[in-house]
Amino acid sequence: MYCKAPAGVTSVSDLLAARSQMGMSLAFHIIFAVVGIGMPVLMVVAESRWHRTGDAIYLDLAKRWAKGTAILFAVGAVSGTVLSFELGLLWPEFMRFGGAIIGMPFSLEGFAFFTEAIFLGVYLYGWDRIAVSTHIAAGTIVAISGAASAVFVVIANAWMNTPRGFEMLDGKPVNVDPIAAMMTPAAFPQVLHMVLAAYAATGFAVAGIHAFLLLRDNRNAFHRRALSVAILVGAPAAIAQPFSGDISARYVARWQPAKLAAAEGQFRTERGAPLRVGGIPDEAARKTRYALEIPRGLSLLAFHDPNAEVKGLDAFPERDWPPVAPVHFAFQIMVGLGSFMALVAIWALITRWRKRQLAEDRWLLRAIAVAAPMGFICIEAGWTVTEVGRQPWIVYDVVRTADAVTPMPGLVVPFVVFTLLYFFLGAIVVWLLSRHVLGSPRVAEAEAEPAAGRAV
Amino acid sequence: MESLFTLPNVLAGLTMVALNAYVLFGGADFGGGVWDLLASGERREQQRELITHAIGPIWEANHVWLVLVVVLLFTCFPPVFATLSILLHIPLALMLIGIVLRGSAFTFRSYGSEHDAEQRRWGRLFAIASLLTPVLLGISIGAIASGGVGGAMRLDHARGASSFAELYVAPWLTPFSVGVGVLALALFAFLAAVYLTVEASDERLREDFRARALWGALAVFVVAFMVLIIALVTDTHVGPGLTRSAWAIPFHVATGVVALWAIWALWTRRFRAARVAAAAQVTLILWGWVLGQYPYLIPPTVMIDGAAAPERTLSLTLWSLALGAVVLFPSLAYLFRVFKGRPEAFERME
User: Fold this and answer.
1) What residues contact B181, with CB distance under 8 A and at least 6 apart?
2) Deepest in the core among A76, A160, A339, B101, taking most CB within 10 A?
3) Which phi and psi angles does A281 have, rounded to 5°?
4) B30 vs A contacts (CB less than 8 Å)
């Protein structure tokens, strides 16, 4: 199922260990990277509201969120450093091949990361040292440079999906053009989808936590304000995401048809292909069983034409297939949970539009609380579709993953060590955050809404 | 000399400038961890608090220099990055563990609970990780400088032809590389102590770090001397590079003079001058290595020109560095002005 190693170079288990370590490192880092993009926006909105209204609860909110962000950003910074080294430690032949072609976005990302780290330092430690408006400006720079980092890194990843900016001569890239490599077809759809995902996931995670706490402590003014800020950031992104997903799907259909076929469980090339909801792909029998099929749905979505031809996996030699089942399941999870988030977001915005308090609608609070982890699950699932769906290639149609891995044997050792390290860190972070975030702060109890309810 | 400022040379030089910055800023943050571990006397808690305040707002920005080194290396010299990643996998992976634990433990301590026992545990982890990381960075540099990596490149990589130890351990586990690792640790600790004399607002605290800086200077002298002996008696590529070239002797004299200047400034309590001198000393040691192995990136195998990316990549990278510098330097200046401009004002961060 996983790609095959060329004879005598690297064993299958080493390749599997390298892929597992890379996947685990990315899955871990992406959570913190996303928080680093989304949280600054929430903090800046809260602090600006305090600046404008004088409502001290917003200041408390910004400070509490800043504490959480400091912890998460630090873990994101160090786990991101690990990734930049792992590009070489695990995939030296990939970097030998592609370093000169896609180094550009990485160096630009380096400066965006610099700016982000510098102004996050100013923001987190500068509360008493600089004027409020300067402080808000520092937070805004953090938010902008965080998003810029994501843009550059995703551009580099997009190149792996649609490699451009070089020609092949005797197995080596020549006529290298780093600008063309950055303008690759996958770049725009992937960047748009990732940046929106970051805002949707962070907004909903924070909103969900405070919605959950409002279910227990409904009059708490702190949580009410927190919910309104978080929904303001998360909901529009969640609603825009299905449209951005449509752009992505059409790009994948055109440029990476094997990935689309795996995601949809489409084994046969056909006109008027159906859209499958659920189902279990069976690679041996070459069909997807138990799926709810919407006639012509896939042709319509992928090409905006109900009779368009969709390439199935049968259009590709089997050695070029990605692992079908994981890609299909991940895709279904992403689309399903993403759609749920979009619906909840519409519900929340309609409630706000009708000038009603979000906290008054207990069913809405429950729905938001349930959606809290969904954005992050969607991101993990979406990256599974992108990365596993590209296999067996590390650079699509050019370099196989098996040919890029390091020759060092025993790769299971670093895989296990880094996995344990990240589990340890993850557990500590969850524990620290739960102590910081859960439980209603005292200031909010004192200034609870007039119909003062009980304090937790 | 017309060939000195070629595009590959300039980018190799800028990569080393980034490494230089990482050593001066990020290195000192690791040195801070050393003094956290060695905090002693009746002011041990104040010493730790000073270190925490000094590092807190800036360590993440300082850390990005290392990312920049990595990115420049794989963009401008991809084969060098690939080779180092393969043959130095073990020390680099261990260094990463140190980096991860140092950064997260520091943050967990700053933002964790108010319980003393828990704070101490994170502090201990922060300090130990601060010890580990510089040693492994130094070992990796020593493995390159000594020709250990370059020698292993000539071995046969095909499975079974050379043993695991020959390829993945022997290049870096040498007396010389370990010596350079210890030297890096001593240099970082020395830098940190000197910087902290300037940052301390309390007179007695400043004296604590003055004493530490002087001990640090002594440690640097002893370790550097030992490393030099090892380089000359063992079969490394450093000995000739350090002694043979025309510029070598004046360069070493300059390094020695600056080192004495740093000690004199500390002795006479000219702390700001000591800070400049210490930074200059560390910089000169680093460039002594860089110039000693020029024009090799991995002596005695890979030269700068042979490993350089295509010209278009190099010139675009140069442009993006120029563009980045326009954003970076004013931002960095602002960061240091906000947090380092008024040493007397150490308000609580909340």
Assistant:
1) B134, B135, B136, B137, B138, B139, B142
2) A76
3) -70, 135
4) none
Q: Which residues contact A185 (CB under 8 A, 6 or more apart)?
A: A158, A162, A164, A251, A254, A255
Of A73, A128, A408, the CB nearest to B168: A408
ipTM comes to 0.92
Nearest to A81 among B99, B317, B327 (CB): B99
Q: Give the closest-approach CA distance of A202 to chain B in angstroms.
A: 21
- How far A316 CA sits from the closest chain B CA (Å)? 32
Q: Is residue A137 part of a domain?
A: yes
| Distant-in-sequence, close-in-space partners of A317: CB < 8 Å, separation ≥ 6 | none
Residue A4 lies in a domain: no
Cα(A405)–Cα(A415) distance, integer angstroms: 14
Q: For residue B324, list chain A residues with Cβ-Cβ distance below 8 A.
A: 107-108, 110-111, 114
A113: in domain: yes
Burial (0-12, 13-18, 19+ Cβ within 10 Å), B90? buried
Tens-place pLDDT, residues A46-82 = 999 999 999 999 999 999 899 888 888 889 999 999 9
CA torsion A199-A204-A207-A209 (nearest 10°) is -120
Q: How many domains does chain A have?
A: 1
Check CB contact of B70 with chain A, cutoff 8 Å. Answer: yes
- Answer yes or no: do B313 and A178 touch at CB < 8 A: yes
pLDDT in tens, B230-260: 988 886 666 566 666 677 788 888 999 999 9
The domain of A282 spans 19-446
Q: In this complex, which of B57, B82, B97 lies closest to A88 when CB atoms are compared?
A: B82
Inside any domain, residue A121: yes
Residues of B with Cβ-Cβ distance to A176 under 8 angstroms = 309-310, 312-313
